[in-house]
Amino acid sequence: MNKLDLYVLRSFIKPLIPTIGIMVFFFLMQMVWKYIDDLAGKGIAWYTILELMFYWAASVVPFALPVSVLFASLLTFGNFGEHYEMAAMKSSGISLFRGIRSLIVLNILIALGAFFFYNNVIPVANLKGQSLLVNISKSKPAFHITPGIFYNGFEGYSIKIGEKEGDEEQLLRDIYIYDHKENKKGNHKVLTAASGIMRTVGGSRYLEIELHEGSTYEDIVKKDRAERRKMPWARSAFDTAYIRFPLDGFSNDDLYKTRRRDFMMLNTSQLLAKTDTLEEQMKNRQAHFEKNLNGKYKFDYVDISTGQPEVLKPNLMKNLLSGMRIRASQNAIRLARSNLDYLRQQQREMDWREEMYMRHWIEYYKKYALGVAVLIMFFIGAPLGSIIRKGGIGLPLVISTIAFLIFHILNTTFEKMGREMLMDVELASWLPSLILAPVALWLTYSASTDRALLSGEWFNIISSKLRKGKANA
Hints:
It contains 14 helices and five strands. By secondary structure, the chain is α+β, with helices and mostly antiparallel strands. A five-stranded antiparallel sheet has the order 1-2-3-4-5, with no helix packed on it.
């Protein structure tokens, strides 16, 4: 490696490293802003928040790396052009590809490193970050309970509070607890309290709320219709009462294993294994559904005396006695409604399974597409910077922002189309790169041949055609 390669490498790496840091910080702040209300003022240790932000920072690298490479290449070659360093290279017989030879090798290494990082580091960071959030939820019971909003995180209960106070917001005011355990369709039992204290007990296996100055209201459900019309109910008052909720869903036991079902926490080999499992599950569910559906619509008329099926008449009702036809019609309507609900439930389940199947494939292809995106952004930024010959931060920042927005919109749009099965999932994952690759080739060709992107002759041809068209009209 000669002095030219070292000089070009230093000129590129110098803006690349701080740009990556700035972009990671920018995207990280977006994630922090999403959880700022839940994290701020909850008594969570500062080192816990820093650990969570560290995991989140790793997960935003796929967004920050391509735009950082684009900006650094634009800035580097823009400075080269502005200070006539590119002209000096070409006058010495050094072509564009010879001048950026070291950067091509560097960006290939960055692309390979991006794949390794996306495949091995980010899944672990996502897993530990999500697990840390779960641990925060378990250790800080007030984390998810928001004043004025019903919280349904505990099965069989709905909780609403008026205010939260204290250093860890464990002091509660205006508490309403609706018990749905025995009757999930209505509120037959309600606990109210003026204040309370929330804490974890039993080795953090239970959330206990100590209620003060409260009452219990309960509807007494009678089997007799005449008694139900009287609407009996019972009320009891208490000075202090305790209610506990199990925190089994927030347990630390095998937490990492239970969270690995998320597709963002799997590497390529695990994603392939998971897609095979999901495909097999969909086939089994489909076969089970067909079997159940055939059983629901099977109709045999059996002679009681012989026990053998008889030949049915074309009109099914004529196979029945006149006194059974009304009952049969009512049962048929009930079964039809039940089967319709069953079909809708199965359709929702299959849609969810198919979406999860597609999400796993999209995540699989995205790991490879990141490295390709890095190379494409470099071959857009390097020739474009040598063409515009403008150094400084202003113009490269504007161009990088526009290019990133285009790339991000393409990624988001096609990923959604692939997830909703509007196009092949493999094509949806690679189409943004396929769209931008010709742009990179065109810019590289224009820079290597010293051709202007939009020459004055091109504008003259277009304007002359427009004038001829108006004259003919």
